[in-house]
Amino acid sequence: MPAETLRKALSELTKNTNIKIVANSRFWRTPAFPKGSGPDYVNAAVALSTGLSPQQLLAEMHRVEASFGRERKGPRWQARVIDLDLLAYGDLVLPDAATHDAWRALPPERQAEAAPEGLVLPHPRMQDRGFVLAPLAEVAPDWRHPRLGLTVAQMLSHLPPGALEGMEPATT
Q1: Does 156 score more than 80 pLDDT?
Q2: Catalytic residue among 80, 125, 144, 147
Q3: Which of the two residues, 111 and 60, has the higher pLDDT score?
Q4: According to the model, what pLDDT value does residue 144 have?
Q5: 128 is a catalytic site residue
Q6: In CATH terms, is domain 2-169 a member of 3.40.50.450?
Q7: Based on the number of CB atoms within 10 Å of its own CB, is 39 exposed (0-12), middle (13-18) or buried (19 or more)?
Q8: Of the listed 63, 72, 76, 85, which one is catalytic?
Q9: Which InterPro entries does the entry link to (predicted)?
Q10: Which terminus of the chain has a lower count of CB atoms within 10 Å, N or C?
Q11: Known catalytic residue at 80
């Protein structure tokens, strides 16, 4: 069950004494993205306190994914057992503003094919995805995107009609 897997993964993540969950959203049942690419997902957002660098935190998240059987190969955006994303790290922009802007502006057809070699923060497509913004608004509605200048609540309100279609709180 996806909700149970996510709950266990978050527990596993916080076994690292350098990671503490300080806030978490509800779990949301969300249609697969892109539409029709697999079974429904369970999405959530957590705010963390950590002494790890962004790269170390991402490596720890990948370790947890692997412990649940996630393999990072094959086509992008396919069904997977778990997917933990580092959305932001304070107001840090990585690797730099120009690279971030280029990844954020990548046309949709290229997004499915291209993956950055290194960590890009904030997540370059977070502002376009209801399944990211709805849970994130529950834990950090006032966090301001350092390149767009918009809060999470503002980005959520700017989504096109239908962006939250099919989303509902997950029964846990």
Answers
A1: yes
A2: 80
A3: 60
A4: 98
A5: no
A6: no
A7: exposed
A8: 85
A9: Hppk, Hppk_sf
A10: N
A11: yes
